[in-house]
């Protein structure tokens, strides 16, 4: 733990020139250096709220209070100052610094830090306001991913399911085989998505939907490629005419999907790079074209 958070070698309460001192508790016995701020806090307030801080500050670690009477200074080098100040303020009963309607990104950073120190529960009074912000309609891609984590941490099942669905429908595979959402959000690089299996769940939902869309196309193509003609529309009992009809439908499907998404995806959805939405859009446009020349292909549309 000491290796992660570190302890300042300074033995004075005077903050370095690059740090701004913020007195969360003017009579506090502990100084926390994080980012560009030094926070003066009460160690007992931290101990009461966080089992992580209790173990760190009052256990056999370097972060424990010095025995030589020097200033108690602990460094949190990985913690951004803004969310840390908000959490420390809540712990000390000072609520003015807590934003009622912060941005989605700010809520995200607050909850990441709260989870790290096992104090997410202290955010309960602001849950409804923060979830309202996180649940905005048509948010940018980055906020969709961030609000997935927010919904998970704050226990909003509806918002979590909604964001999970949005990401699953719009995620694609890039040239390096990575699952990407939006323009360039590589999901495997997102440490804070929610539950530990969030990425696997998104991938599984995406593949299941792709399979459901692709299977009817392959079934239709295979049926029309068999030795026995498939088409029976319009009283065609001449095998040659029926084969010509089957060939026309096959050609229309190949051409339509090649023009829209570059070709027909294989049955194995692991090789499908396009999004579920892109595939569905391509399929419906192609089926619409097929139906204009052969209404007997309505079975393809109904199976999608």
Structure write-up:
The protein has a 4-stranded mixed beta sheet. Helix 5 packs across helix 7 (141-154) and helix 7 packs antiparallel against helix 8. The chain is an alpha/beta fold and 304 residues long. The relative contact order is 0.07. The chain starts with a helix and ends with a helix. The chain contains 12 helices and 7 strands. 51% of the residues lie in helices and 8% in strands. The chain has helices spanning 2-5, 43-49, 51-58, 81-91, 104-116, 127-134, 141-154, 157-170, 198-225, 239-261, 276-293, 298-303; strands at 20-23, 30-34, 37-41, 73-75, 172-173, 179-181, 185-186. It is rod-shaped. The longest helix has 28 residues, at 198-225. A hairpin with a 5-residue loop joins strand 5 (172-173) and strand 6 (179-181). It has 3 domains: 1-97, Potassium Channel Kv1.1, Chain A, CATH 3.30.710; 99-196, no CATH class; 208-303, no CATH class.
Question: In a few lines, what is going on in this structure?
Answer:
By secondary structure, this protein is α/β, with parallel strands linked by helices. It has helices spanning 2-5, 43-49, 51-58, 81-91, 104-116, 127-134, 141-154, 157-170, 198-225, 239-261, 276-293, 298-303, and strands at 20-23, 30-34, 37-41, 73-75, 172-173, 179-181, 185-186.
Descriptive labels:
single chain; 304 residues; alpha/beta; Potassium Channel Kv1.1, Chain A; 3 domains; four-stranded mixed β-sheet; three-stranded antiparallel β-sheet; rod-shaped; BTB domain-containing protein; SKP1/BTB/POZ_sf
Number of strands: 7
Kindly report the average pLDDT value: 87
The DSSP helix count reads: 12
Largest sheet: 4 strands, mixed
Strand order of the largest sheet: 1-3-2-4
InterPro entries: SKP1/BTB/POZ_sf
Protein name: BTB domain-containing protein
Organism: Neurospora crassa (strain ATCC 24698 / 74-OR23-1A / CBS 708.71 / DSM 1257 / FGSC 987)
């Amino acid at each position: 733990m000491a290796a992660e958070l570190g302890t300042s070698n300074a033995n004075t309460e005077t903050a370095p020139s690059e740090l701004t001192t913020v007195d969360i508790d003017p009579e506090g016995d502990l100084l926390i250096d994080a980012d560009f701020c030094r926070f003066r806090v009460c160690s007992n307030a931290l101990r009461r709220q966080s089992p992580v801080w209790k173990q760190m500050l009052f256990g056999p670690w370097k972060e424990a209070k010095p025995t030589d009477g020097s200033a108690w200074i602990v460094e949190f080098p990985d913690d951004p100052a803004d969310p840390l100040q908000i959490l420390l303020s809540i712990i000390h009963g000072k609520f003015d610094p807590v934003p009622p309607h912060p941005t989605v990104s700010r809520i995200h950073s607050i909850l990441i830090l709260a989870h790290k120190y096992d104090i997410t529960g202290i955010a309960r009074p602001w849950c409804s306001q923060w979830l309202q912000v996180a649940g905005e309609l048509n948010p940018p891609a980055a906020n969709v991913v961030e609000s997935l984590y927010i919904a998970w941490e704050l226990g909003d099942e509806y918002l979590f399911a909604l964001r999970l669905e949005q990401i699953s429908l719009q995620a694609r595979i890039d040239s390096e085989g990575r699952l990407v959402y939006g323009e360039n959000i590589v999901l495997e690089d997102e440490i804070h998505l929610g539950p530990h299996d969030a990425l696997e769940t998104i991938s599984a939902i995406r593949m299941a939907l792709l399979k459901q869309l692709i299977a009817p196309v392959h079934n239709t193509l295979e049926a029309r490629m068999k030795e026995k003609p498939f088409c029976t529309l319009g009283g065609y009992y001449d095998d040659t005419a029926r084969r010509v009809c089957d060939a026309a439908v096959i050609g229309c499907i190949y051409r339509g999907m090649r023009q829209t998404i570059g070709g027909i995806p294989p049955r194995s959805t692991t090789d499908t790079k396009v999004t579920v939405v892109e595939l569905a859009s391509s399929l419906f446009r192609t089926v619409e074209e097929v139906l204009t020349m052969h209404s007997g292909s309505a079975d393809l549309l109904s199976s999608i």
